[in-house]
Amino acid sequence: MSRIAPTFAALKAAHKTALVTFITAGDPSPALTVPLMHALVAGGADILELGVPFSDPMAEGPVIQRACERALAHGVGIRDVFAYVAEFRRTNQSTPVVLMGYANPIERIGPDHFIAEAKAAGADGAIVVDYPPEECEDFAAAMRAAGLDMIFLLAPTSTEERIAQVAKVGGGFSYYVSLKGVTGAGNIDTAQVAERLGAIRRHVKLPIGVGFGIRDGATARAVAEVADAVVIGSRIIQEIENSPQDGAVAAVHAFVAGIRGALDA
């Protein structure tokens, strides 16, 4: 079992909503990745998503695309991501870490190798944007056998069949993309989100996190009324972009602490 299910269980017992945060590994520099991971936890993040840099991140808006470009300019690849997770685990054995990215880097090193390296590093699961559940049952089963969760995306346009398939093969939690668009775009209609989550929960018994478009404490708190987790990525990357490198860790910590405070108020 990964750390994800116990984390959600503990939060539910405490009547708290999970805060899931995203950064891209290697952005703004390789040396800051692990300090940023620790800053996210210190600020109140419950689960970390660590982005694997990729040259064509199709689901990402310009903010996370720029983060990928900066990381790739530093030469950061998937093996570096494993190393960051292993370094983080030297002092944090409890916070779940989910690797988020695209199929290409996984296919390049081989799915079995990816699973073995992710497990050895101390990761808890993966979100692979372009691995549809209908086409990766074997990969999801191999992840599960290694004690890792395969987390799938659901969208406003997801069909009943797709939702049922995610319920069948997914693990950890399900990630509901609240907008018809890329990361960082638009404003969330929380009433619409609540309606869609009701339909999803008829099939999916895992916790459901909601992301894309959550930019402040008020929106996070509104989403928390209907979701099990709030997922924030682009807004955190903007804090990194808008800070000098020696101030990025403090800026990220302060922003996440503000979101945590809004969720717990």
How would you explain this protein's 3D organization?
The chain is an alpha/beta fold and 265 residues long. It has one domain (4-264): TIM Barrel. It has helices at 4-13, 33-43, 62-73, 78-89, 103-109, 111-121, 137-145, 160-169, 190-201, 217-224, 234-241, 248-264, and strands at 18-24, 47-51, 97-101, 125-128, 149-151, 153-154, 174-177, 208-211, 229-232. A 9-stranded parallel sheet has the order 5-4-3-2-1-9-8-7-6. Strand 6 (153-154), helix 8 (160-169) and strand 7 form a beta-alpha-beta unit. Helix 4 (78-89) runs parallel beside helix 6 (111-121).
The residue-averaged pLDDT reads 94
Unreliable residue runs: 181-185
Structural class of the secondary elements?
A: alpha/beta
Beta-strand portion reads 5-15%
Percent helix range:
40-55%
Q: Main sheet?
A: 9 strands, parallel
Q: Can you tell me the CATH superfamily?
A: Aldolase class I
Overall 3D shape: globular
Instruction: Look at the structure and give the CATH class.
Output: Alpha Beta
Quaternary organisation of the protein chains: single chain
Q: What gap, in angstroms, lies between the N and C termini? A: 31 Å
User: Which strand order spans the largest sheet, edge to edge or round the barrel?
Assistant: 5-4-3-2-1-9-8-7-6
Task: Supply the number of structural domains.
Answer: 1
